[in-house]
Structure prediction request, 110 residues.
Amino acid sequence: MQEYRPINLLQEGESVDQIWLVAEATPRMTRPNHKRPNGSPYVQLTLKDRTGRITANVWNWDLNKNPINTGDYVKITASCKAYQGRMSIATESRIYQYVPTHRQTSMIIL
Prediction:
């Protein structure tokens, strides 16, 4: 895992591999198309640190099967991109969910 980069310093095209705090997790559906007439589930995450917030869309993710909750910590490998004038991150690989405990951090692979 690379050195931690605060959200306010992330730049377009930069790759990140770090742990984020989930401020919000919203289930969504993609628009229907010829391959998926009912759309496909994904989750829009708002991730935060002490310097700001950033949005991450996690494609083909069903919150009913793999819940992510506000206050969870997730490890995401992603690249930064500008979308509609705001910085966001595009997931490239699995998400790892961390469950902090009072003595240690355990990891759940989703």
Observations:
- The radius of gyration is 14 Å.
- The chain has no helices and six strands.
- Residues 4 and 18 are 7 Å apart (CA to CA).
